Amino acid sequence: MGITFQATVQGVPAQDKYQGQEYIGLLLVMLSFHLLTLNNATNLSVFQLFNQLPVYLPDWLLLTITDLGNGVTLGVITLCCIVKRPELLLRVVVASALSLILVPMLKQYFDAPRPAVLLETLNIVGEIRLKHSFPSGHTASAFLFAGTLFFAYQQRSIKLLAISFATLVGLSRLAVGAHWPQDVIMGAFVGLFCAASAAQLPRLTLNLRNHSYLLSFLWLVLVICELDKSFDKELIWQVLLLRWGLLCLAGLLILRQYHTLTLLGAKLKPLSPT
User: Is this prediction's pTM over 0.70?
Assistant: First the structure.
């Protein structure tokens, strides 16, 4: 007799009018900042303000914070969340697919120069990039993650924490000299748009065993991607420690879930006739 225990995906909770208002308010705040940064002088002033942070903060800290928006690092963090909230899996996959289409397309279309091209004096921490500045991919990924949590939870504390996390990643892109403020704001728009679009998907019913297999596959893909990137000489050991530490944590969570599923299967299995 097979295991019939399943997880019924309820999807995101019913969105009340207050949650909708909060989301619209968040978009209006982003729009206000975007309008401000359309002015070149304001855009430059905001960039120079946050680009002074390397003077006061160690490079490893800024690089570690900005790496939280990296595809592998944030992918592993998201995977850890999906272990606890399996109903987010489809939404994350769809939102990520949208982001992988929109961000490169916008980067190629605008082909905007990065600060290192236009400014003679600035602080650059980490890799020097010269083109495809608009929008910020790291920020888009961070706000996609934050937007997914925004629609998945009713608690305002979780929403605030998620948006603060994404904002910190966005500001770090200014600090390391990789992006302009308008790149960061548009990246936030793209991430929130992808998360909001994916949040409209219908309910699903997932078999827990298949869910564990799928998570294991995604974890393996992330491990392979990181193995390829770990040989990059520009990566500092703190970033490598963060990534591999998160990969180990995600692996343990998936293993624990599979072990729990195995125990449930043993309990549900009927006794053989004697």
Answer: yes
Q: What angle do CA 29, 34, 38 make, to 5 degrees?
A: 150
pLDDT tens column, 130-159 = 999 999 999 999 999 999 999 888 888 999
State pLDDT tens for residues 215-274: 999 999 999 999 887 777 778 899 999 999 999 999 999 988 877 777 766 666 554 454
Q: For residue 251, what are the contacts with CB-CB under 8 A and spacing of at least 6?
A: 219
CB 23 within 8 A of CB 150: yes
Q: Is residue 112 a contact partner of residue 132, using CB atoms and an 8 Å limit?
A: yes
- Contacts of residues 104-108 at CB distance under 8 Å and 24 or more positions apart, as own/partner, are 106/134, 106/135, 106/186, 106/190, 107/132, 107/133, 107/134, 107/135, 107/137, 108/132
Count of residues in the chain? 274
6-8 and 205-207: which strand pairing?
antiparallel
Residue 239 CA to residue 64 CA, distance in Å, equals: 5
